[in-house]
Amino acid sequence: MTPTLVPLATHSQIARTPSGEDGLPQELEEDLRAFGCKLIHQAGILLNQKQVAVATAQILFQRFWFVTSLKQFSIGDISMGALYLASKLEECPIRMRDLINVYDLLLQRNSHELSLHSSPPPSSPSHRPQPTHVPGHNLVMASPAAPAPSPSNGKTKFKYTPMAYFSDAFYNLKDALVVAEMQILKRLGFNMLVVLPYGTLINYLRLLGLTNHKEACGKAWGYLNDALQTPVYTIYAVPTIVSAAILLATRHLGISLPSTPPNSWWDLFDASWEDVWTVCGHIMRLYRDRTLEERLEVMRMVNKKEVRKWLEENNSL
Amino acid sequence: MSTVAEGTSAPSRKRTKWDEEDHENEAIRRRQQALSRQLRSLRKPRMTDVTSVPKGTSLSRSPIRDAYSIFVPPRAHHPPIQPSRSVYCYERLNQIEEGSYGVVFRARDKETGDIVALKKLKLEEEKHGFPITALREINALMSCRHENVVHIREVVVGDTLTQVFVVMDFIEHDLKTLLTLMPAPFLQSEIKTLMLQLLSAVAHCHANWILHRDLKTSNLLMNNRGTIKVADFGLARRYGDPIGVGGLTQLVVTLWYRAPEILLGATNYSTAVDMWSVGCIFAELLLKEPLFQAKGEIELLSMIFKLLGPPTSATWPDYCTLPLAKTIAISPPHAHQFRQRFPHMTALGLDLLTSLLTYDPQQRISAEEALHHPYFSESPLPKHPDLFASFPSAAAGEKRKKPFDSPSAPLRAADRIFAETELP
Ligand SMILES: Nc1ncnc2c1ncn2[C@@H]1O[C@H](COP(=O)(O)OP(=O)(O)OP(=O)(O)O)[C@@H](O)[C@H]1O
Ligand SMILES: [Mg+2]
């Protein structure tokens, strides 16, 4: 039986993403896409949704940005649409209203955190580390709109106000959800085939004799899940990604595996060293330290209006 | 452990999705020896500083990886990420048929001139966004690509959100229309060919975790080259997924082709329901008319009981556990009547038929097993598809010859099939 061939981004799609063409730096795009995947992950937890649906949603979400610019659709809307769609694909559909409520909460929390740190909008590209910046200080009270910090922890506790049952907010989110789902379908040509890596990981760990090494298994599993926040599942076939997760896990734990050509263990799984190593790069970049300002910038840009604003401010230079 | 590897007969055994990866073992085993040799003479691998990982994405472009297994095809074999085209890329010709689920048109690709079939999906009910049934249909077609499954070319969209069309290869005939038009039944050799094609399509779907759930002659298309294409995945569903609350729906499979376990209320049915339908299709090919032409479920059950003999604890151990079993009155036991119904069938042919039309889903033959049934290797052997006659296509709007045309009409190649006589 031939394996299902999932769609993968082409060389030119990878080299020139629509957002990149619009002037968004690659690192910022990666961070925004990762943020959308985190939203999917958090929504999945709040909805008690199955991991297969969450993973599928994250992969569809990543695919979407190879055919669409972040300026055109919001990360918030598309991540919500991806989770809704993936839940149907994985035969565990969720109720629209539940999903919308959860997203409303996540987005309110996002705005709340932003408001705690709101400051005059930066006029220079702030995605690069700013040496003068002191994380978490002096930003809290900068805007009069920001709620006063509570004396205990210096921050206002986030309090979620649920939407009214027939509120405009609900219907706005509902419209956005329906549009997002349809846009994902259309822009991905209705090819929703996804292959998840977990079965392959178990198989490879068995073949490498690592199944009894609990720590290695757990670590590799964790890297695979973290990789869902990167575009690697839309660029490489599963064997390459699983090999990368095993490579990171075994190196981290100092486990030795045959790594000298022509008998390197990844060759056994038809993965090329170059590709495996690049996947490792994608995963490791997730763990790079971000400054507070970088993080806030990404949180603000959950909305496409902020992406457009950023592009106007930074590309006129 | 997989049913295929062992060749055991447990068609409806619940497979789990984890089984799937084992096909890779086959290819890996060969190279595993080299690895274990290496593992014994372990060297410390070079430890790399994980912070010095590469920036950006570079794809290895190594074009020739001859040593690589067929299980990991080269990257170039994967389809690209590609948005849907517009339905206006096609010129509409004639409407083929309005099904229960959508309208099917014949159309021409304006770019290539190819003749295709466009199935418009019904999307009116938008309370839950894009309908899950339409997703299943598209996904099943895309994940079950096979010589005997109708080929999905793409999915195109119209102006509004409710216009979505599945584009398929246009296939001239459906088997139901064909059977009603033919004056004589298919030959044994032809039936074997058709059954092998049907079985290999069904085996492929099942191997890819798809249940068709609506196999019947009107959903089997046939081209002029004697090739069957399974179509209409409108009721298809993945199996092997944990089944949600309430189980699988019983509102599947057109009545006449519906397996007894569904009729009796089972909600955890599996691949065997398709195999029952295959059995009904096999019988229909032999009889040239549907096997169980019942008006309702009760009548259907009594027709099944009549042909197979009523179920017993031996032929269907789980019968009593089915939800509706208590409500059905079972007639006094009698032997099956396959021989009376199919007097000209060989013993092997009858064996295949009864293996398909078996009560107990656990004992019912699987598609993979049926493909290797000795019926297919006894005389007459399956006829090469090229030797099948061709017919005027009703779907293409071609003028059809009346079944009994004037005897002076020239005997076209297309009519050969009518002229051949069958030896019992
Ligand atoms: N690829 C095709 N080429 C030619 N004709 C086709 C094709 N696909 C479908 N048809 C014709 O259209 C009819 C209906 O198609 P299909 O079975 O897919 O739709 P449906 O609405 O699900 O039908 P139903 O529910 O009535 O079975 C088929 O019986 C066949 O006659
Ligand atoms: Mg049909």
Automatic annotation (TrEMBL), chain A:
**InterPro entries under this entry?**
Cyclin-like_sf, Cyclin/Ssn8, Cyclin_N
One family name in Pfam for this protein: Cyclin_N
What GO terms describe the biological role, i.e. biological process, of this protein? regulation of transcription by RNA polymerase II
Coiled-coil residues: none
CDD domains referenced in this protein's UniProt entry, alphabetically: CYCLIN_CCNL_rpt1 (cd20532)
All copies of domain Cyclin N-terminal, residue ranges: 26-104
Q: Where is this region: Disordered?
A: 114-152
One annotated GO molecular function: cyclin-dependent protein serine/threonine kinase regulator activity
- Name-wise, this protein is Cyclin N-terminal domain-containing protein
Organism listed in the record: Pisolithus tinctorius Marx 270
Automatic annotation (TrEMBL), chain B:
PROSITE patterns reported in the protein's UniProt record = PROTEIN_KINASE_DOM (PS50011), PROTEIN_KINASE_ST (PS00108)
Tell me what organism the protein belongs to. Pisolithus tinctorius Marx 270
Q: Name one GO biological process term.
A: regulation of mitotic cell cycle
Q: Where is the composition biased (Basic and acidic residues)?
A: 17-29, 413-424
Q: Where is the Protein kinase domain?
A: 90-376
First-tier enzyme category under EC: transferase
GO molecular function per UniProt: ATP binding; cyclin-dependent protein serine/threonine kinase activity
EC number(s)?
A: 2.7.11.22
Q: Where is this region: Disordered?
A: 1-33, 395-424
Query: Which reactions fall under this protein's catalytic activity?
Result: L-threonyl-[protein] + ATP = O-phospho-L-threonyl-[protein] + ADP + H(+); L-seryl-[protein] + ATP = O-phospho-L-seryl-[protein] + ADP + H(+)
Question: What InterPro entries does this protein's entry cite?
Answer: CDK, CDK11/PITSLRE_STKc, Kinase-like_dom_sf, Prot_kinase_dom, Ser/Thr_kinase_AS
SUPFAM superfamilies cross-referenced by the UniProt entry: Protein kinase-like (PK-like)
Per UniProt, the ranges with Polar residues bias are 1-11
Q: What is this protein called?
A: cyclin-dependent kinase
Q: What is the lineage of its organism?
A: Eukaryota, Fungi, Dikarya, Basidiomycota, Agaricomycotina
Q: Write out the similarity annotation.
A: Belongs to the protein kinase superfamily. CMGC Ser/Thr protein kinase family. CDC2/CDKX subfamily.
